[in-house]
Amino acid sequence: KAGVTQTPRYLIKTRGQQVTLSCSPISGHRSVSWYQQTPGQGLQFLFEYFSETQRNKGNFPGRFSGRQFSNSRSEMNVSTLELGDSALYLCASSLERGNTEAFFGQGTRLTVV
Amino acid sequence: AQSVTQLDSQVPVFEEAPVELRCNYSSSVSVYLFWYVQYPNQGLQLLLKYLSGSTLVKGINGFEAEFNKSQTSFHLRKPSVHISDTAEYFCAVILNTGGFKTIFGAGTRLFVKA
To answer: If you ran DSSP here, which 8-state letter would residue A112 be given?
Structure first.
């Protein structure tokens, strides 16, 4: 069974641009969460989606947004990119919400120049 | 405020030696506890989890962890490490606050030396 797929794997963008990252969860998984990983801040929770609805949101500015489609695939968007948005963005999928195991993708490495 | 503290940012250890990676959390609500491992340029992989029941949890690759409610700790142990265990290890808690929120520790870099 295929794992969590994140595309693209690497991305270079210029300050002020916007970017969309994609995550395809494991087949049958309905919960998708997004995390930002940086050397300074570690792993920080961005959002959680379940059944096409955002169920939880971390402490990030409104420039960070996301959505989930009916097939559970999810996208996150970052507008007006800043240098500090450079990070590894990880997506995780779970069968259900809460205490079930999360399966992580390999991440999208975003570099803002 | 809820938080997860991994007490060591780096742990160097010789091959075949035992290792303990420490994790403490603070929370006023019920939690589920996890340990994940991350190899370079990879996502995270679940090592083990504690949801309820026996406080000693066994995971993959010979790792185990013990939940200590009174000390709010969930330390990870392995009796004999291999070179291939070199990686970043993350402790995480899921808070059940009506919704579910995951908080990760800052990570511990385990470096196994020959």
So the answer is: E
Taking CB atoms and an 8 Å cutoff, what residues of chain A touch B104?
35, 42-45
Q: Establish if A23 touches chain B: CB-CB under 8 angstroms.
A: no
Alpha carbon distance B46, A11 (integer Å): 26
Under 8 Å CB-to-CB from B52, ≥6 apart: which residues?
none
Instruction: Quickly state the pLDDT bin for B2 (edges 50, 70, 90).
Output: confident
**Secondary element (H or E) of residue B92:** strand B87-96
Q: Which of B32, B46, B104 sits opposite A42 (nearest CB)?
A: B104
Kind of pairing between the strands at A10-13 and A108-112: parallel
Cα separation, A28 vs A65, in Å, equals 24
**Nearest residue to A78 (alpha-carbon basis) of A88, A63, A89, A59:** A63
> How buried is A83 (Cβ within 10 angstroms: 0-12 exposed, 13-18 middle, 19+ buried)?
exposed
Tens digits of per-residue pLDDT, A47-89? 899 999 998 888 999 999 999 999 999 999 999 999 999 999 9
- Cα distances from A61 to residues A67, A76, B1, B104, in angstroms, run 16, 13, 20, 20
* Position A1 pLDDT exceeds 70: no
